[in-house]
Design brief:
With 232 residues, the chain is an alpha/beta fold. The chain has a domain of 152 residues: ABC-type transport auxiliary lipoprotein component (Rossmann fold). The chain contains 6 helices and 5 strands; from the N terminus they run H-E-H-E-H-H-H-E-E-E-H. The chain has a 5-stranded mixed beta sheet with strand order 2-1-3-4-5, with helices on one face. The longest helix has 25 residues. This is Lipoprotein.
Length: 232
């Protein structure tokens, strides 16, 4: 009797550990590393991705931008980010600084700013190497892209929009998503567009987002491939 109980208990324990190991295997996730190549194919500047989510999750477009940046880097392209060249407005910087300083420190800083006013600024109040805050958080026009090119050197500029909606039904609700990407050359000329649509899934899913960005890179790769003269 004792031997039978021992066998049954052993089987239960083995089943338990195997099940836990299997579950752990399924949920282990995946890890990838993208390393910048010494020689890049071309350089992309990542611009603004407009959020058209009807629930307005502020992280949707940020996740998309980060994943797109990773996939471009992994494919051997150079990456620049428009926000890195946007000068923070003095009002925003002053408010952030004031929240961290004592009143006496604020007065001392204001006095120092008064002494240095006008020094080191470029025409129009824009510092060399930086863009005005007017270029932030919006889709740029051709003339604006030309201005950006004068500050940071790139081969192609990407901007677009991410839209997520549903069929507006309480029962049998179906989610759908649309991704628009526009590619411009360094002169601000529109050269190509990429559109991705999906129904029954949301663009916030990690694996789907990874798949989308990988496919975007595939499209860019094909667009940049030199074609033989006999192919049109």
């Amino acid at each position: 009797m004792f031997f039978k109980k021992y066998i049954i208990l052993s089987i239960i324990l083995i089943f338990f550990f195997v099940n836990c190991s299997y579950s752990g295997f399924l949920n282990s996730g995946s890890m990838r590393i993208a390393i910048k190549k010494e020689s890049v194919k071309s350089t992309y500047l990542l611009g603004y991705i407009e959020n058209r989510d009807n629930h307005f999750d502020p992280y949707n477009t940020k996740n998309l931008s980060n994943m797109l940046k990773f996939e471009l880097l992994n494919a051997g392209y150079g990456i620049l980010v428009l926000d890195d060249y946007i000068k923070v407005s003095e009002d925003s910087a002053s408010k952030e600084l004031a929240s961290k300083k004592e009143p006496k420190d604020i007065l001392a800083q204001l006095a120092e700013n008064a002494k240095m006013s006008g020094a080191g600024a470029s025409p129009g109040g824009q510092e060399p190497g930086f863009l005005s805050p007017d270029f932030s958080s919006k889709l740029l026009r051709e003339s604006e892209i030309k201005t950006v090119q004068a500050v940071t050197r790139f081969d192609f500029f990407i901007q677009g929009a991410l839209a997520m909606n549903d069929n507006r039904k309480i029962l049998d609700k179906i989610e759908n998503g649309i991704l628009f990407l526009e590619i411009f050359d360094k002169n601000g000329k529109f050269v190509s567009g990429i559109n991705y649509t999906v129904e029954g899934r949301t663009l916030t899913e990690a694996e789907l987002l990874k798949s989308i960005c990988s496919r975007v890179i595939d499209k860019l790769e094909k667009r940049e491939e030199p074609k033989p003269w006999w192919k049109f």
